[in-house]
Amino acid sequence: MDILILNGPNLNLIGTREPELYGDLSMEEVYGTLKEKFSDLSIHYYQSNHEGAIIDKLHEVGFSYAGIILNAGAYTHTSIAIADAIKSIQTPVIELHITDVMQREKYRHHSYLTDCCVHHIIGKGTDGYEMGIKHFIDNIEGCSEVT
Fold first, then answer.
1. Catalytic residue among 31, 45, 65, 97
2. Domain chopping of the chain, boundaries
3. Is position 22 annotated as part of the catalytic site?
């Protein structure tokens, strides 16, 4: 079973960017831990600072993967195009935010993605990625047989 962790703009800087908000672990470290912990699954990681590349990746895997965990970063609050891409694919998508966006700047309170995602994980730090994988294991037919 394939699961994609898809991160948007500036999330390549996790571990160095505002560690008081995002923690001090890099995404490479988080991804490595997830691959180890869920070694029976095929977990993939992709990050882009470009909206079109995120949409292209959704289209690429959105008909064959079991699940996508999407942290669209700032595009969450601006991109109708990413929301349309999620609506256009078959693979279920979880919306994830490392920080609690409702406790941050007002412009972060609105998400174009919420209505088209199957689940939302907000403010759980990088542990949210593990929570997303567990959600897929518990809720997608066939996933629970893998772990």
1. 97
2. 2-139
3. yes
Residue 8 burial (C-beta neighbours within 10 Å; 0-12, 13-18, 19+): buried
Distance (Å, rounded) from C-alpha 95 to C-alpha 118?
8
Average pLDDT of every residue of the chain: 91
For residue 46, the surrounding DSSP H or E stretch is strand 42-47
Helices (H), 23-88: 27-37, 51-61, 80-88
Q: Which superfamily does 2-139 belong to?
A: Dehydroquinase, class II (3.40.50.9100)
Using the predicted structure, report yes or no on whether residue 146 has a pLDDT greater than 50. no
Find the helix or strand (DSSP H, E) in which 2 lies: strand 2-7
